Amino acid sequence: MPDPTDKLLGCTCFKLRKLTRSMSRIYDQHLATVGLKTTQYSLLTNAAREALPVAELADRLGTERTTLTRNLKPLIEAQWVTLEAGADSRQRIVTITPSGRAKVEEAFVAWRAAQSALEDLLGHDAVRSLHAQLDATLIQLTPLIEDLQHAHPD
């Protein structure tokens, strides 16, 4: 029989999604000054680190390939990234362009402003602690996520 005090915890998924939406609004507001959304900035910064196949970038970002492909379209149209041919004909490599690198540099200032506002509000130690808890939780969830992926492959 479940412990009746468990009801007091509420739904962790709902709480995290609510927090994520709130955080995204803060970062999106800052990044809007340079014409980007948080998801676009994240894609650009990851593409700037190294050219990666779509599947590998999706895995790194923790998103579905189809979602990543949809999110890449406006970045491709803006000529900030390209999809280059990979080792085999089915593979596409996400590659940042020189104008994409310039956009990352421009957007970093807006991202830094959002990050600083958050750190000022919550405190640097609290943000560091939040990051550590999130990283630890993601590591702990890895076996469950891998099990789900094996049960329902793409």
TrEMBL record:
> For this protein, what is any one GO molecular function term?
DNA-binding transcription factor activity
**Which Gene3D superfamilies is this protein grouped with?**
Winged helix-like DNA-binding domain superfamily/Winged helix DNA-binding domain
Domain HTH marR-type, which positions?
29-127
Instruction: Name the Gene Ontology biological process terms.
Output: response to stress
PANTHER family, per database record? TRANSCRIPTIONAL REGULATOR, MARR FAMILY (PTHR33164), TRANSCRIPTIONAL REPRESSOR PROTEIN-RELATED (PTHR33164:SF105)
> What is the protein name stated in its UniProt record?
MarR family transcriptional regulator
Q: Which species?
A: Massilia eurypsychrophila
